[in-house]
Amino acid sequence: MTPQPNPQLGAAVAATDRAHVFHSWSAQELITPLAVAGADGSYFWDYEGNRYLDFTSGLVYTNIGYQHPKVVAAIQEQAASLATFAPAFAIEARSEAARLIAERTPGDLDKIFFTNGGAEAVENATRMARLHTGRPKVLSAYRSYHGATAAAINLTGDPRRWPSDTASAGVVHFWAPFLYRSPFYSENETQECERALTHLEDTIVFEGPGTIAAIILETIPGTAGIMPPPPGYLAGVRELCDRHGIVLVLDEVMAGFGRTGAWFAVDHYEGVVPDLLTFAKGVNSGYVPLGGVAISSAIAETFARRPYPGGLTYSGHPLACAAAVATLNVMADEGVVENAARVGADIIGPGLRDLAERHPSVGEVRGIGMFWALELVRDRETREPLVPYNATGEANAPMASFAAAAKANGLWPFVNMNRTHVVPPCTLTDAEAKAGLAALDRALDVADTHTI
């Protein structure tokens, strides 16, 4: 689609937004949201006619790109036949979405509890774990994000937790592996894996194994930095959980449904099956809000004759489920998962590593599939971040200038702290990938000016 400029309408949209919309995670008077006129595939555009290659996939959810005609048609058809219905009934779209999801989850995760999004999935997964075990505590990693609802924000490790942390939510944080900034002074992945597992085991011992209901991990952490765990780590966590009767919850809200070049990120780690798996985002490419929990047979049995004390008015909403059915079928029919794996391995990964060789601001490249991060630094030797942890205002100026340069070159970047994440739609073409890398190359020239 060709953007048709309409600045007058764009100004009206922006003005109405400023008058009435309260935006997430923002000081309202310090933001200027872009007025978006439309989107298609891997691109979106504003009312001035500026088009951007979206390296954010919205909020890492448009896995099949914007406006896929088969998903749009499925939503329209569902709206025409049964636009909504209460969650206590068996509805074709709901049943089929659950079946298709269960077919793709690992192991015996065959029961699906639908939510409206990822945070509610995490809320219900931790509730299930606590009720299943009769224990109060949940362990989660410092470098993590699990959502903004009451339990999910306390489980979150990043600074967005701080203003809402009650310090009484039964959450204990620990350090998960991250070799580039190892808290364990490790020199290689083997050491990092062993030391991180020892640290987690010590945490379990000193917290009391009999008090811990669950350990929750993002299979591959997303917003916190896209850090694939070293070989053996997830298997080691699985063994610790089995030894102590702890439920393992893997959060695949961001990493699931093709993002890593597999249906789920856990598919990359042979023999690891969680007890609960949370999902959202890519399950229907974000076209209608949907999330859920995939539940093992053992935990499902806990609620076979005991009511599960939780539910949502819009659980398994027909429009959202119809979008999920269409999305999952599109992904299978059009080889979207395979495309993410191939483009990631053949173009994105090598391209980012080439950028790292030429730009002193790039400290490390991490990722897989369509799930990558560049760690930007002031000094490669000391690994000092390009901006301080949780920087704002003038302290964040180097990252702000990098982001502005990317946008000026037609690339919309995902920027968090001292990192830029490369998380485009899983349908990204070779040509689009190369165009995005070229724009990123030019933006990194600006980041380089802030290095030592």
From TrEMBL:
<comment type="similarity">
    <text>Belongs to the class-III pyridoxal-phosphate-dependent aminotransferase family.</text>
</comment>
<keyword id="KW-0663">Pyridoxal phosphate</keyword>
<dbReference type="InterPro" id="IPR005814">
    <property type="entry name" value="Aminotrans_3"/>
</dbReference>
<dbReference type="InterPro" id="IPR015422">
    <property type="entry name" value="PyrdxlP-dep_Trfase_small"/>
</dbReference>
<dbReference type="InterPro" id="IPR049704">
    <property type="entry name" value="Aminotrans_3_PPA_site"/>
</dbReference>
<dbReference type="GO" id="GO:0005829">
    <property type="term" value="C:cytosol"/>
</dbReference>
<protein>
    <submittedName>
        <fullName>Aspartate aminotransferase family protein</fullName>
    </submittedName>
</protein>
<dbReference type="InterPro" id="IPR015421">
    <property type="entry name" value="PyrdxlP-dep_Trfase_major"/>
</dbReference>
<dbReference type="GO" id="GO:0008483">
    <property type="term" value="F:transaminase activity"/>
</dbReference>
<keyword id="KW-0032">Aminotransferase</keyword>
<dbReference type="GO" id="GO:0030170">
    <property type="term" value="F:pyridoxal phosphate binding"/>
</dbReference>
<dbReference type="Pfam" id="PF00202">
    <property type="entry name" value="Aminotran_3"/>
</dbReference>
<dbReference type="InterPro" id="IPR015424">
    <property type="entry name" value="PyrdxlP-dep_Trfase"/>
</dbReference>
<keyword id="KW-0808">Transferase</keyword>
